[in-house]
Structure formats: C-alpha cells, structure tokens
C-alpha cells in the first residue's frame, strides 16, 4: 500500500475526523463521514449497511468516495460500499470509488425503491478506481443488495411462525441481540448447527441460507418424525454490528469472527459456544454448515485423510448426486485440511466434535433465483444424509 493511502486508511479506520486530504491524492473539499452535498446533489451514509465513507467533492455533479476497511487490511478483502443520493434535474452524477485497500470486487446494485438493477462501471487499469454514472433522482447504490438486520428479523419472524423457538444467545458489543432459532424437538438426541453472516458483505450466502432454512422449516412441518429425530440451532446473523455498520469483514471489536472459533474472544462467537456448552450434553452436534460468499459456488470440506467412512458417506449422500445436476448452479467441492488453531468454524466444529463441518460458499454474482432453488435442493439432500448417518450410527 502506498504511504499516502496508508495515512488516509488509518484515519478512516480509526474514525479520525479529518476535513482534508493531501492534494497529491485528491483535489476538492472532503465532506464529513455523514455525507456531502453540492447545490445539485446530496450523498448520504445514513442507513444500516452504509459505512461512514469519506466523500470528496470534485465538482457540482462529481464525487469520489474513499473506500477502506474498518480495521487492518483483512484476509480476503470484500470492499464494501453503500450510499444513497438525491440529484436534481441536469446532467447525470459521476461517482468514483477509490479503493485504499484491495480492489473493485462487487458490481454496484442500484435501487430507487421500485426498480433494481446492476450498474456498469469503468475500471482503472489497476482496479483501484471504479467510476459510476448515476441517473438523476433519488436512489441507493451498494456493493450488493442491502440485507440489513431488519431483513434478517423478518426471516426470523417467518420461521418463528412456522414453529421455531426464538432465543437471544447474547449481545454484540453495540448491544444488538445475537439471535438464534431452534427447530425440532428438545428431546431429539442429535443437533445440527447452521451459521450465517459472519462476514457482512457476503449477501449471496445469506440468500442461500434463507432458502435452505425455509425448506427445513417446511420439511419439519410435513414430517413430524423428522423433528423428533433432529434438532437444529440456526444463527443466521452472527455479526449484527458488522452488518449494521457496513463492515467488510469484522465485528465491532475489529475481529474476523471466522478466525475466533476456539479463541472466543468476541461476544458473538462466545454466545454460541455458551449455548453449546449448556445444550450439547442433551443433543450432541452431528453436523455444521456455515454459509458464506466468494467468487464462485463451492463447498469447503475436510481432506480425505481427516475423515472417516461415515463422513465420506455423508458428503457423498448430500452433494454427490447434485454435482452438475442443478440448472443454472454449477458448484465444486474443495477439500481443505484442518489447520488447528486457525479459528474457522469449519475446523473448530470438526476438531471439537469430530463431525462433518462444511463451508457453503455462494458466488458473489450467482443468480439469486438459481441460488434459492439450489439451496432448497441442498436442504432436501442434507436432511436425507442426516437420516442415513443417524441410521448408520444406530447400527
């Protein structure tokens, strides 16, 4: 990273309220993080999911947003941005996204409340600047569709109305609830853990998890015996502060939660661990799936040398017949050996409970309808594999 960019990134990440940027980086006044305005255009960062970016006014209808992470340069940068604007009649508005860390990853999503579309961008040769041309009017622009804490709350409401029990596992550093649902009978002897949204920008993974859990709720209602056999702990929004604040990867404490398993230094992961300590004696964990997003559709699974016949049979029973069989949704299975102490949920659950533990990754730009349809098929296969594994254990 160039030194001048490092200086600016430190100011942004620590919340320093600078009102100017060295002229060698940008020209024009720099607005406070709450937004910026000219007589013709106003830009705001006043909704959940909008990070407090710095905004440079280049001209009456031209702006630059400085895009930086909330903490030290993260693993696997997910350069998130989100803002809304109001532009009166006249020429279109030009907004440049200048990435102080990482480079452009997400195609901008534009919404005026009634129409949603993806915007084209002009990229600099090094990928550090993306330029957008915005139509006049009032609209929101974001790296991915904004699925805020309210979106997750509505999903929880639906699942609760379907018979799930809702509980608060703990509180985030900002005091937001870390909520979970339990599905199935409390007397069931087997527990499945489903986790989501450890990393705020990973929206396509949240879309998949919603559809996956929707299908499980339906199947439990259709088959009471399934609810007697298996209990589910569902934590769809593990990082509520990061989602609300528009973080790239970390929680309010500046920690990547998917590097905190086994350490449990943060209240969100510690809350899940506390629940497991209390309840796992009654229902032993038998499988875990953690939903994420990356640049393509894939599943991270354990290496062959780390799994026994039962785990291999579970993986084949769940995903084996679906490879190449889902319309509009190709995926790969990637084996990764456990790295003790790495702090990922996949490795911690596998090491701690000796169970199948997977990371379910959805491509950033994978078609959302195909994502939902595939997730429902994956849920059906997952339930079948659970029953097969339970039968094998019993024998």
By CATH reckoning, the class of the largest domain would read Alpha Beta
Largest sheet at a glance? 8 strands, mixed
Q: What distance lies between the first and last C-alpha atoms, to the nearest angstrom?
A: 58 Å
**CATH-level-4 superfamily name of the largest domain:** Zn peptidases
- Beta strand %: 25-35%
How would you spell out the order of helices and strands?
Answer: HEEEEEEEEEEEEHEEEHHEHHEEHEHEH
Number of strands: 20
CATH topology of the largest domain: Aminopeptidase
Can you describe what's shown?
The chain is an alpha+beta fold and 395 residues long. The protein has 2 domains: 140 residues, Immunoglobulin-like, CATH 2.60.40.3120; 246 residues, Zn peptidases (Aminopeptidase). It contains 9 helices and 20 strands. The strands form 3 sheets. Strands 13-14-16-15-17-20-18-19 form an 8-stranded mixed β-sheet, sandwiched between helices. A 6-stranded mixed β-sheet has the order 1-4-5-7-11-10, with no helix packed on it. The protein has a 6-stranded antiparallel β-sheet with strand order 2-3-6-12-8-9, with no helix packed on it. The radius of gyration is 22 Å and the shape is elongated.
């Amino acid at each position: 990273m160039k030194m001048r960019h490092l200086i600016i990134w430190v100011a942004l990440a620590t919340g320093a309220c600078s009102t100017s940027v060295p002229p060698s980086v940008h020209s024009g006044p720099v607005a406070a993080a709450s937004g910026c305005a000219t007589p013709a255009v106003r830009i705001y960062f006043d909704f959940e999911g909008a990070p407090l970016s710095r905004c440079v006014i280049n001209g009456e209808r031209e702006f630059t947003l400085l895009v930086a992470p909330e903490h030290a340069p993260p693993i696997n940068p997910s350069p998130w941005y989100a803002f809304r604007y109001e532009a009166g009649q006249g020429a279109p508005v030009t907004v440049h996204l200048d990435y102080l860390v990482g480079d452009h990853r997400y195609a901008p999503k534009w919404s005026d409340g009634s129409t949603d579309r993806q915007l084209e961008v002009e990229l600099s040769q090094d990928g550090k600047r993306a330029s957008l041309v915005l139509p006049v009017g009032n609209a929101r622009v974001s790296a991915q569709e904004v699925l805020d804490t309210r979106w997750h709350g509505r999903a929880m409401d639906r699942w609760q109305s379907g018979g799930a029990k809702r509980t608060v596992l703990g509180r985030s550093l900002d005091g937001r609830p870390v909520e979970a649902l339990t599905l199935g009978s409390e007397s069931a002897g087997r527990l499945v853990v489903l986790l989501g949204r450890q990393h705020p920008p990973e929206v396509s993974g949240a879309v998949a998890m919603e559809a996956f859990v929707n299908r499980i709720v339906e199947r439990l209602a259709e088959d009471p015996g399934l609810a007697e056999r298996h209990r589910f702990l569902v934590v769809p929004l593990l990082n509520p502060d990061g989602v609300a604040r528009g973080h790239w990867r970390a929680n309010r404490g500046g920690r990547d939660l998917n590097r905190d398993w086994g350490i449990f230094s943060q209240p969100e992961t510690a809350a899940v661990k506390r629940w497991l300590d209390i309840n796992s004696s009654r229902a032993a964990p038998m499988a875990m799936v953690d939903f994420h997003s990356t640049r393509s559709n894939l599943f991270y699974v354990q290496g062959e040398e780390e799994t026994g016949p039962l785990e291999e049979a579970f993986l084949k029973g769940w995903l084996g017949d679906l490879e190449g069989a889902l319309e509009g949704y190709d995926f790969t299975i990637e084996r990764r050996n456990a790295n003790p102490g790495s702090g990922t949920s996949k490795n911690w659950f596998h090491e701690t409970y000796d169970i199948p533990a997977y990371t379910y990754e959805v491509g950033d730009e994978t078609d959302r309808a195909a994502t939902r349809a595939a997730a429902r098929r994956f849920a059906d296969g997952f339930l079948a594999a659970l029953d097969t594994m339970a039968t094998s254990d019993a024998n």
